[in-house]
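User: Fold this; C-alpha cells only.

Assistant: Input:
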Amino acid sequence: MEHLGLKFRQAIQQEKPLQLLGVINAYVARMAELNGYRAIYLSGAGVANSKFALPDLGMTSLNDVVEEVEHITSACTLPLIVDADTGWGSPLNVRRSFKALSTAGAAGAHIEDQQEAKRCGHRDHKHLVSTNEMVTRIKAALDGRNHDSFVVMARTDAVAVEGEKKALERAIAYQNAGADAIFAEALTTLEQYELFTKNLNIPVLANMTEFGKTPLLTKQQLSDAGVSIILYPLSAFRAMNAAALKVLQTIRQDGTQQSVVNLMQNRQDLYHYLNYEKFENELEAYLQLMESKHGND
C-alpha cells in the first residue's frame, strides 16, 4: 500500500503550487476529495474552534487532534497534513505526538517554533523558542514518524517577531535539521515569499488565511514567487459559520427558514457526498439475506 506521505510528496510535484484545503471534519474532507483536491489539512485552530468552541491558544490535546485525524482518514483517501502546534510538550512528547499522528493515518504534520503557550499565528505578542530548541523538536518529530515518507514540516513565526532576516536564518537551520518543508507564517509581501523560496531547497508553504496579516494572493502570484504549497486552513469553516449564523438568526426572527433555503445544501447533494445509495443497497442486501435465512428455519 502506498504511504500517504509519498502521495502528498507526489501531489506537490504534480500540482504547482499544490492547493491544500483545510477541512474541519470527515464530511468536508469527502467533499474536497470529490471536487478534485489532491490534499487536505486539519487546523489546530479548527479543532479548538469547531469541536470545543475554544480559541487557538494551545488548549486542546494530542488526543483531541488524533481523534479527528482518525475520523477524516477513515472517510477520505486524500493525504492529510495536520497542525501539531508546538508538539504538546518535551521532545519525548513531540516524538510520541508524531508517532500517534502517523499511526492515525496522517500523511504529515507541521510543528512550530512558538513557545508552548502559543497564540494564533496572526495575533500579536507571540513568543518563540530558541533555534536550537526548535531544531530539537524537528529531530524528535523525525524520530517519531512511522514511515520515512511521513512529511515533517517546520513552521516559523519569526517574521512577525524577529524580522525576515532572522526568520530566514531559522528556516535554513530547520531545513538543515531535516525538515521536509517550511511553513513561513504571517508574511506580508510577495517579496518575503521570494526571499524564502530562493534561499531554501525544500518546498515553502504560503498560508492564505482570511482576515490575517497576509494579503490574499492568487495561485499565479504565489507560483511566480516560487511557493510550492498554498494553504487555505479555515476558508470552508468560516463560510459554514456565516451561513449557519444567517440561518439561525432568520429562523428566530422570521419564524421560518424559507428565505434562506438557498444557503443550504440540498438533500440530493448531501446524499451524494455520503454515498447514501451504496450503503442503502448494502443494507437491503443484508436484510434480504436475513429474511431468506429466517424462511429456511
